[in-house]
Structure formats: structure tokens, C-alpha cells
Amino acid sequence: MKRLEEEKVFKDPVHKYIYVQDPLIWDLINTREFQRLRRIRQLGTSYLTFHGAEHSRFSHSLGVYEITRRIISQFERNGYTDWPAEERLVCLSAALLHDLGHGPFSHSIEPVMRMNHEQWSCRLILGDTEVNRVLREVSDDFPERVAAVIAKTYEPEIAVSLISSQLDADRMDYLLRDAYFTGVNYGTFDLDRILRLMRPHRGRIVIKSSGMHAVEDYLMSRYQMYIQVYFHPVTRSSEIVLQKIVRRAVQLMRDGYAFRFLLPPLPQWLQGTLTEAEYLRLDESFLQTAIAEWCGEPDPVLSDLCRRFLHRRLFQYVPLRPDEEPDWDKLRRLCREAGLDPAYYLEADTLYAVPYEAYRPGERNRRLPIFLLDQGGGLTEISECSAVVRSLCTAPIELKHLYYPADRIALA
Amino acid sequence: MKRLEEEKVFKDPVHKYIYVQDPLIWDLINTREFQRLRRIRQLGTSYLTFHGAEHSRFSHSLGVYEITRRIISQFERNGYTDWPAEERLVCLSAALLHDLGHGPFSHSIEPVMRMNHEQWSCRLILGDTEVNRVLREVSDDFPERVAAVIAKTYEPEIAVSLISSQLDADRMDYLLRDAYFTGVNYGTFDLDRILRLMRPHRGRIVIKSSGMHAVEDYLMSRYQMYIQVYFHPVTRSSEIVLQKIVRRAVQLMRDGYAFRFLLPPLPQWLQGTLTEAEYLRLDESFLQTAIAEWCGEPDPVLSDLCRRFLHRRLFQYVPLRPDEEPDWDKLRRLCREAGLDPAYYLEADTLYAVPYEAYRPGERNRRLPIFLLDQGGGLTEISECSAVVRSLCTAPIELKHLYYPADRIALA
Amino acid sequence: MKRLEEEKVFKDPVHKYIYVQDPLIWDLINTREFQRLRRIRQLGTSYLTFHGAEHSRFSHSLGVYEITRRIISQFERNGYTDWPAEERLVCLSAALLHDLGHGPFSHSIEPVMRMNHEQWSCRLILGDTEVNRVLREVSDDFPERVAAVIAKTYEPEIAVSLISSQLDADRMDYLLRDAYFTGVNYGTFDLDRILRLMRPHRGRIVIKSSGMHAVEDYLMSRYQMYIQVYFHPVTRSSEIVLQKIVRRAVQLMRDGYAFRFLLPPLPQWLQGTLTEAEYLRLDESFLQTAIAEWCGEPDPVLSDLCRRFLHRRLFQYVPLRPDEEPDWDKLRRLCREAGLDPAYYLEADTLYAVPYEAYRPGERNRRLPIFLLDQGGGLTEISECSAVVRSLCTAPIELKHLYYPADRIALA
Amino acid sequence: MKRLEEEKVFKDPVHKYIYVQDPLIWDLINTREFQRLRRIRQLGTSYLTFHGAEHSRFSHSLGVYEITRRIISQFERNGYTDWPAEERLVCLSAALLHDLGHGPFSHSIEPVMRMNHEQWSCRLILGDTEVNRVLREVSDDFPERVAAVIAKTYEPEIAVSLISSQLDADRMDYLLRDAYFTGVNYGTFDLDRILRLMRPHRGRIVIKSSGMHAVEDYLMSRYQMYIQVYFHPVTRSSEIVLQKIVRRAVQLMRDGYAFRFLLPPLPQWLQGTLTEAEYLRLDESFLQTAIAEWCGEPDPVLSDLCRRFLHRRLFQYVPLRPDEEPDWDKLRRLCREAGLDPAYYLEADTLYAVPYEAYRPGERNRRLPIFLLDQGGGLTEISECSAVVRSLCTAPIELKHLYYPADRIALA
């Protein structure tokens, strides 16, 4: 593939500049499907807690591409023989496109709608789209190859691990980016050092053992971001209100309710029959407009929940111990006395995360563990050397809260 | 007024934390009109040039409030007698609410629609709104007082100058904030030093003369931000496409065209008859949804322009000298040959700004000049001492470009 | 005490500005003893590893003062009744002066010379010094009170804990400052949040429990700084060379060796009989000059070690397991074969630190543990709630290295 | 030349990491002459005003090397034919060594001692030094070539202009570095953008015209750093005291005064007969020690001035207009009445700088102007396009102050 005559840059607050050298990458960025990612926020409803968190999947996708570009460029500059040089473009494309299938507030809504953004990414890459046409100019099987990297079925696996492992370009970008835009400074770590100490090694990406503490710091940042940002109970409250809205709308659709506002592709979405073209029409502007319109629906549950979301009148929360169950009988009674349906106004919610999953022999790991490469060429899984990392494996984050409308129900 | 029992904070990337101590401010932030500012971007279409620039008027409004709070707190701590202590709450409220009337992409659209966001801010403050109800709890005339500060008719004028002069909380916040979110570092200046050297002095806010160079640096940041960000030709191109969309829609409305998508308050907006309630329904999600829907309108001009905006297929630009006129006859001929209406596909656009306006005796100044206070109590207008500031007064920024669709018209 | 008519500021890279409001503090800063701290580096020989680490005890001392000032100012602003307001000046003075007794490269040299900088701080505060005269203007017993805070014998103990506990102004400043000047970014944590959540509570400084994760992050920063900076083996190598120099000079002094360069107070220092006036003469310029002069001493051990230090020809290191002993017989033989005295050219060095010490009932704790204050007023020691903190208590940092001159001895 | 097997890095707060790939550069850094630069501060006595400004010439020299390395690497990556690739090593060496000849507080003392650090740099490169031996391993004439670049006599001139022009690696590093360590944020500019837009063009380094505003911003940073930092009157006061000390010592030497402390190479230095070996012995530790010792000299002028410097009892200053002369008769009388010699206790000092010198035809320029390269290949000197830059050329910085000991003389 040829290089661009003059390299193009994007100004980026996290990486200073993002450099584009390949016409392929430039063309992918300019497709309408990739431009649509400007209308999907990176952190869903987190902007209701951290007002700076308005950044888009578009900026994150460019960031993942840029980190991947830097890693590969380092591998090439040093001529590491374990790096399959011919995988460069497929890796860069997959890095750029890995989030292509994200829908509006997808992390919040996916559990309700049983959609999966990675499947959608692949459908959009393989379907009748501008992205597909651009990729096919490389070769007929290039879209399939890019989709396989995203689906984690690609061989050689090293290409997958650049974008999707426990120390990958995706996670490194979103930690730095989410920290920057929320304004919390927990997400920072020494990206330059980690990139410099990455090595391709027998089909894996590993880290020189002198980088162990930099990786510890990265994992601790991840832990802190989970607790401070991703699992923030106010954000969670807004996600629950949003889920309830979607649940209610799906139910009303099933019941044949006559929506005042039901612009396509809302019916298809609520019925789970979206085509790719319809899916692309779904962005956060559209969903936010639907929510605003539904504030005027006659159905009292739908309209009330939508007003709560729009005007940020979220549910209140009280912490629960992991094994604690609230007094459901009393809660449901209070709810009904207030004229509210408990199915839409009460939720006991558990959030659970393991900031790092060590390798356990005999188990099939969901995520590739992080290996350290010592001078003799030996590999050690990081939690074997680091007590700090072990503490992250053995004490998962587990938060449980009860959410309810404090303006309608008094809990004590 | 009472203080909050425990002060509330917002995490903010620019000011680290924003502190709320007054129940009044807390209640204003929680009104639906103020929450709506989350759905209006601070920099309009600039996100199409700088992908980080997704930040909202909500975050900027909190920032202006915070800077105002710090200035007043410094005045109170030092017990400056020229500061009218009883104006604290009206200043804080006006700082918070000064942008309440901003509509979607208002800086781009206002010239076409003859709307004015400051007038709308006052209408919303004085009308039947939650904001008005919260303000009236202070006193019956409190909404009028806040509106007067925003309209710059308030007495004492010193309250106005905190929020609206050439060195005010509004400008200081947006320079820092826009620099942060775009990622350019030109907008930085020493906010702490300027705040520390501000003094209330005989009805004016002035700066101790030892702060002259810090003010120079602030004015140079302003100059750089105009050139690098606010007047960026790619952003301007997107604004022009947006203006053309609105112009076309207004024309079609007048012509009785049967829009496929014309949800209220679109008709009222295009006809210029919006009520406050209708105005509040206008946010950027709504307008972006309208543009997405209009991509499917039968009118070829409207649908083409909307697709250009949505998928970022903007107009190309060529620079012109300030006094240069393009060859209109040839351009219009080329345009028509391509089947395009020149009224919607050509624009010669001039941008003009004076980063700082010195005081000229005999003229009525639009903007209050910046005065330096020397140790003897004398005042000097800053451009009299600083050659750098003089260069900003005497050489205004003037940029002229021709915009046209390069995919349809070849200019040579 | 009166306040300064106009508050004074110091520009500081870590805290932006350091504010001085009390004439007492201003006068203390201007004493010759405090000015001497400009000639003592904060991080000793670390500049030989991290070239930015040239910052002085002077800047750190101002930083500790500033953090203490902010904490107290927050306590006063909120009117917390558990804060003894009359202790303000003694705390500020002790914060400023706590490192007054540091000598050149004191952390490296103290173990050899059996000096103790805290004892010297007290001697200088109580002796015939400018600092003592300034303090005595407050009251006759004021120097004793300040010294008692530094010696940790002061009552009420809350004054001590501000400056000397496991979450004190001293540690918070040096982590941020050392991170800034070395350029590593591990030392950052959310200072503003921790300060905001500090509370005086029944004679202790505690943290609101909502600040638990911010404290975790602070403790992890501390852990990372130990590993990456404070215990860096290159720095340690330079410290060992320096210790060997001092040991050799002490030995030569005892042996009646005729030094070519032995300016006072070198003899007194090497004999351990320094008066306060002599001690004040010791700064890093002086010691560095002595080392440069000693490069020309006839004693081959002293001159060689001094050249190694001056020209940064340090000892090489090889890591050892904590329980591993090198083959001393072989090493000493190799050393002697190279014509070197093993006592000055070999060292097996162990570094040990516990980033956080939890409270163990029945033990007398060296350091006050960190307590979290829940809403009901209950206190919990932080390691009881946090697995991450527990990992820091239970897995101390322990590093062992062998140091030797690789230019003279080949280890295989 | 071969590359290092594994590239070496230095952690640097300004550039994050400094990369060394050539054994030559690595060996030069490890010479004793280059290590000596650790003992020379970058900003002389500025640490007495900005306590963070303790950074050394060592760190600045590495920074200039790193910027030069990045520029050349960009030129090579893009294969610009106007770049003479064979000059890489000579440029990198000259960048690293350009300040090798700096003595203690050289900017302050040079005017008094008529020394010139650039001449000394060349003497040390060409003389009997480790640096010379390392350079000669490249080729016999390599030391001469490196010295010629530093002396600005090298051909091709483009090699000189990388390190020494009005937009060179030297200035770009020191602005960023001095801003970082003092903590002022005026010195920041977009280094990455300037480096990306630099082009070798017909024997010159020029900037693509799209970088004009980034260069404006760089020049404004330079202007602000002059005013806020380099010309700070407190720093200037310390420089004047230092100059008086040196003048007095030179005079006493001439007069045959019997110094109590006069360690070599002090006599040679005061008499201006230093050899290279003696020169290398001069560092700031040594001079600071001499000043501390001279506090005990019987000569009252020398000892008083030395105490003033050591304990920071500097001269007071009053601003003068550029054309204003103080009332010398009165001042000298007051001085003598206080028992002080006016030659050592009074100074009317003028500081003058032009932040940017435009090209004036017919004049021989001291500094190469900055040219912008337009798309057609034309060159324009930047002050022709930029009013802001013109204001910097036409309004030079000129500051005049009277310095005097306010503790002895009352000026009314």
C-alpha cells in the first residue's frame, strides 16, 4: 500500500497529535459509518455525573488506532522478528473500527436489548457499507480479516492481542481519555514506557520485566477508574432509568400501544429486527430526541421516566452489602402506595469487576493474562511477582445499591 | 441567604473542582432549563474540526460561575471597600445563567435566524420557568436584577463587568476550557495571578499594574484561539453548510413545501414565532435529528446539504485577500452547469475580530477597556503601556475565504 | 498576630503559588538558616539518576508549609470544633522548619555519621540562631513548642499529626514534588480531594470514608515512588559510593592522615563534634567541593572513590534475592586481586520499606495509621476496608543488590 | 556509525524521555566534562527568585540534543532532499556539547570576567579532554567540525541553524525547560507542531507558512519569559551582587591582598590565566564555597557582599525610565555617609532585548531571521506577515533599575 503524500494529523488532547499515513486509514475515517461515531458518547450517560465526559467514540477510536500505530512502528523500527510485518494494515484497520457497531448508550442498553456492539461492528464491516467498500479495495478478503480480528478469531492471535487483551490499545486509550475528559487524574500511567517495553514474543505481546511496576500502575489506574468513574452510583442511576425507559417502550410496543412518536427505526429497534441501514440511523441524538418526545406520551410510566432522564431527576440510591437483600415486601408496598409500578421504579443492582484476571491453569481464560519477559527469555504471569496485582485479582470490585425515586418514596 | 450545610462540588477538568455553597445556586443548577445546557455544545460545530470539542454550555456555565465565585471570595477576604458586598448573589446567578438562552449551534445560526441568545436568556429568566421560580424565592425583583446584569443595564455597573467586559469570567473560562477540550495549548494563561491582581476600584474591575504582562498573555491567548480554533476554516465551512440548511428550510416553509419531517417546534422555529416552552424544546439532539431526517426529503437542495453536514462532506475553501472578490460570473456559471443553485452552494465569507478594543475618546465603546492600577491609584488603559497589546488593537484579524463544493465544481 | 498588609506569594511549580500571610512566616523564610536549605537537595544524589531532581529542601519546606496552611484554612472556614484554633502558628512554623536540620546528602550519610536531621532541626530552633530569635518574638516558649511538634512530643497530638503521620503535609508535598521534578508521573494523586475530606476528629486528623479510594491512590503513589525513584539502584549505588567516601575519611582522620584539603568544619564533622555554627556551614556545595578536592589526595582509596562520585563512575549492581548471600570469599578474592580493599569496594545492600503500616493492637506503632470517618461518626483503619491497602501492608518492598566496581572486577 | 544494541533513555520532565541511539552520544554524555554540567545551573542565580529553577545545564544540553534528534529524524523519515544526511552526527554532537564551556553563573559573570562560554566550549572540544578523545574516534577532524558548528563557522550553514538561529533547538528547549522548572506557564508553545512543519530548504531551516501562528506563539513565549523570568529584577539584583563580589576579588588580587581562602584555581581565575584543566575545576559548588569562605575575609567589602549573596540579603531596586539618570551626587553622598564605597554598592542597570530580530537589508544580521515557506516555494520573513511579530521587533524590552542596599541607605 502506498503512503499519503503528506501525512495528515488530528489534534488530540490525549496523544497531542494522531498521525495518518495510509490512504486506507484516511478513507475509513471519512466513511459515513465512522463519522457516525461522533454521535455516540464514549462513556454513555457518565456526562450526567462528570460534565466533561462528553467525548465520543470517534475520538476514542482514533486514539486506539494511534496507540496501535505507535506499537507497530516501534516493532518495525527495532526489527523484531517475532512481529508479522504483513499484519500491519489489518491491525490498524481493526483498531480504528473495533467500536464501529456501538449504538446509543450501548453499555447501558445492551443488557436490555440483547444487542452486542462487537457483532454489529462485524455486520457493518461485512455488510453493504462505505467501510466495506473501502476495505475491499485492499483485497476481497480484507473485510473478513478485519472482522476476524475484532471477533477475536483471527490468526495469528498476536494481531488480536494488540487490540484486545488485558493490556491493549483499547484499554490504554480509554483509561487515559476518560481520565482526561472527566478530569479525574487516577487514569494516568506511563504510556510511553509501556509502549517502549512491549515486545512481540512467540505469538504474544509481552512486557519486559523491567516494566512490571509501570504495568502495576496501569492496572491500579484501571481499578481506580472503575470505582471512581465507571461504577459511579449516579451514573448507574441514570443507566437504570434509561433501561427502564427501554423496557417500558418494548413492553408498550408488544402491547400494541399507540405511540405518539414512533419514527423509524424505533419500531424495528423495539422489536429487535433492525437492518444495518436502520441500525446506522440510531445515534444518541436520535435516542435523546425520542426520549424528549416521549415526555409527552400518555403512558404515565414512559413519560415520567423520560422526564426523569431528560431533566436529570434520577433515582436515589442506598448502598447494600453484597449479600444483603432489601425488604422487598415493604418496598413494593411503598411503591404501590405511591401509585408506582415496582417493576419500573425499584432496582437492586450489583456491579462486579475484576480489574485483572490472572491465568488459572485448567480454566479457559476470557482475557489473555499479562506476561513479563525476563532477560533470559522466560515468561512470568504478572500476578505471580506482584502482591499489588494479586490484591486486584483476589478482591474483585463488588458494589450493590438499591435505586428508587426518593421524591415519591420515603425510605425511613 | 443561608449556606448549604455541606458544600457541594463538581469535578471539572479546568478548575479541578467547582464549589457550590449557596442553596440558590444548587437549585438553579437543578432546573430543567439549566440542565438543557448539557445538550448544547459550547463550540457549536467545532467538533467537526477538533474532535475533543464536544464540551457543553453546561460545563462552561459552571466554569464562569466558579471564576466569579473566586473573584468575589478574594474581594471579600481582603475586605476591599469598593466592592458592593450585597451584589454577591446576583453576580453568581448571572454568571451561572448568562448563557441560558443559547440554542442549538447558536453562533452559527443566529445570523440567519435573527435570534439573540442574550435576549432569550432574559426571556427564560423572566418567563414561566423553573429558573424564574427559584430566583423569585430570593425576592420578587431578583429575576429582573439577574436579567439586567445579563442585559448589561444593571447598576452598579461593576456587577456587569465581572461577567461581561474584556477581562471577565466568561472569557477567562471559555479560553481555558476550549483550549483544554480541543487540545491546543494556546489558550492557557495564568488565571490565578490575574484573579489575585484584580481589584474593585471606583465602580470598575481593574488590574494591579504588576499584572500587565499576565494580561498581555491572556490577550495573546485570545488572539491565538481566534485564529487557531474559533476562525478555523473547516469549522467555518460546517457553519456555512448549516446556515444554508436553515436558509433553505425557511424558504421551503415560506413556499408551502410539504416537509416529510416537521415535528414541532420546527414550524414555529422556521417561522420565527417560538414561545419560551417551544424554545426550550430546541436542543442540538433535536436539530441533529431533524437534519438526519431531512436527508430523506424530496427537495434536492435540503437533502443534499443535510447529508453534507451529517456525513461531514463539507465545502472546500480557498483563501482570498480581504479586498479580493472572486470571479462571481464564472463561479455561478460553473455552479449552474453542475446543476446547483449558487445561492446555496457558494459563499464568500469574511471573519473579522479585534482581540482587544482600546478605549477611543469620543467613541461609545462596545466593550469596557482594561485598566491598570498603579501604586499611586492612577489608572492607565493597557494599550497605552503595551506595544504587544497595541499590535492586537491595530491589526485586527480578518480572514476571507470562498467556500464551494469541490466534489461538484472544479475551480481550475 | 497581625497579618501582612499584602499577602506575599512564591511561584511554585507544584502548588502554583505559595501564600504567606503572617509576618512570622515571612521572617522565618528570610533567616540565614532557612535560606541555607536552598543548598541542600531534596533527593540527595537522585539527580545522578533523574537529572531533573535538583530541587532543594527549601522548595519542599515551603510546600509542606503551604499544604498545612490549606488544611488549617479549611478547618477554620468550616468552623470544625475539634480543631484547636490556637495551634495555627505553631503548626505553620513547624511545617516550615521541620527539615531545617538536614545536612548535605543527609539520607545517604546519616547512617554512617549517626547524625539525625530531626535532632539538628530542634538544636537549630532552640540554639543561638536567627530562626530562634524570630520565633521568640511570638513568646518565650514558642521555640520549644515548635521543636516539640517536630520531635513529635507536642500536646495536643493533632498538631503533630498534621506534619508527621502516614497522611501528612510532609509526605503529600514530597510525593507530588519529587514526581514533578524527576518527571515520573507515578507520584500524582488528588491532593484537593484529600484536603477537602480531612477532618479534625477527637484529637486526630481523619478522612471522610468517601475519600477512601483517593487515599488508596495516594498510598499506591507512595509505593510506586519508592520503587521507581527512592530505591532506584543507580541512586543507591551513588549513595554507597558516598558512604564509602565518608567512612574512608573518618578512618583517615582517626589514623592521623594528613589531608591536603581539610577546611573547617571538615575535621569537626569527621570527628562528630560539630557545633551549631559549624553545622550550618555544611551544605552540599561545601561537601561537593571537598569531594572534588579529595580527588587529588594521595590516599588511593579516598581519591578513587571521590573521582567515581564526581564523574559518575558508580558501582555496578546485580540483584540478589532477599535471602541470598553472594559468594563473599570469591568476591573478596577478586577484589584483592584487583588491588582493592573489599571494605570500600563491595557492598550487599538491602532496602526495605512498608508503604503503609496498619495498626496492630498490642504493638506500639511508629506511625499513626489512617482512619476513615463514616457518617455515623465511627472510625475504621483503612486497611480493614481496602484489599489494595492490605497488599501494601503485607508485602513490604524489599530489594537486595550487590554493588561492585565493574571496571575493575569481572563477575563472570 | 553503529547504533546501540538497545536504545538508552533518560527520564526527562520536559520531553518525557530522551532517546540515545548512537554509541558516540552515549560516550560523550559519560565524559567528565559533560558530567560537570550537572554542577552548573541553567538559569544562574534565578533560583533566588524562582525556587524551582535549580535545573542544570546537563539537563538542558540533553534537551537540545533530543530536539535536534527529533528534527533530523523527521527530515530523514520524509526523505527531504535538501537535508545533508551526512551531517547527522556532527549536528547531534554539537547540540549536546554547545554549552560545554559554561562556567559557574556564567551569564552573570561573563561581562565582568570577559570570558566567553562558546570559546570555552570550543577549547574543551579541541583540547586534551575526554570529550576530544571520544570525538576523535569518529575521525581526526571530527572535533574541529563539531567546534565549527558551535562557533557558527561550519559549512553547510544549515547544520549551524539547527542549533543556533532564532528558532533553534537551543531556544526551544530552554523556553520549555525554564518554564517547567520555574513553574510559570508562559514559556509553553506547540513544539510538536513546529517540529512537524520545519523543512530544510536550500541551505536553510524554514517553517511551512501554515505554522506562522505557532511561531508567533513561540516568539510571544520568548518575550514573556524575558520579562517574567530572565529580566526579573530580583534575579538581576543577585547578579549585580555577584558581579560586585567578582570585581572586588579581582581588585584585591591585583592589590596583592592576602586572601584567607584562595584555593586554586581561584588565583588563575581572578588573573584570567586559566588552563582548560583549571577551568574544568570551576563549577557552582566551588564558587559557592568560595563565597561562603569569603564571608570571613577581613576585607569588609568582600565579606559583606558575600554574606549578602549567601543569605539572600540582596540590593533593593527602584525602576527608572530608560532615559532617566538617578541623582548620582546625592546617591554617592548617601553611600559614603553610610560608610560604603559607591563603586560596590550602587548600580544603574539597563536590560535590553529584542525578542525577535527581523531581517533588515543592508545590515549584517546577528541572528538568522525566520522564514515561512509558502506552497509555491516562496519565502517570506515572518515579521512581514505578522503584526504581532512586528510589535516584538519594533518595541524592544528595555528595563532600567537602580540597585542599592536599602538596609544601609534610605532613599526617602
Distance between the termini of chain A: 68 Å
Supply the CATH class of the largest domain in chain A.
Answer: Mainly Alpha
Q: What's the average pLDDT of chain A?
A: 94
The tally of beta strands of chain A, per DSSP, is: 9
Total separate domains of chain A: 2
- Class based on secondary structure composition and strand pairing of chain A: alpha+beta
Largest interface: A-B, 42 and 42 residues
So what's the oligomer here? Answer: homotetramer
Task: Tell me about the largest β-sheet of chain A.
Answer: 4 strands, mixed
Task: Write the topology of this structure.
The structure is a homotetramer of 412-residue chains.
Chain A: E1 8-12, E2 16-20, H1 23-29, H2 32-35, H3 57-78, H4 88-97, H5 106-113, H6 117-126, H7 130-136, H8 142-150, H9 157-163, H10 169-182, H11 191-197, E3 198-201, E4 204-208, H12 212-230, H13 233-254, H14 266-271, H15 276-281, H16 284-294, H17 300-310, E5 316-320, H18 328-337, H19 342-345, E6 347-353, E7 371-373, E8 379-381, H20 387-394, E9 397-404
Parallel strand pairs in A: 4-7
Antiparallel strand pairs in A: 1-2, 3-4, 5-9, 6-9, 7-8
Helix pairs in contact in A: 1-4, 3-4, 3-10, 4-8, 4-9, 5-13, 6-8, 10-12, 13-17, 16-17
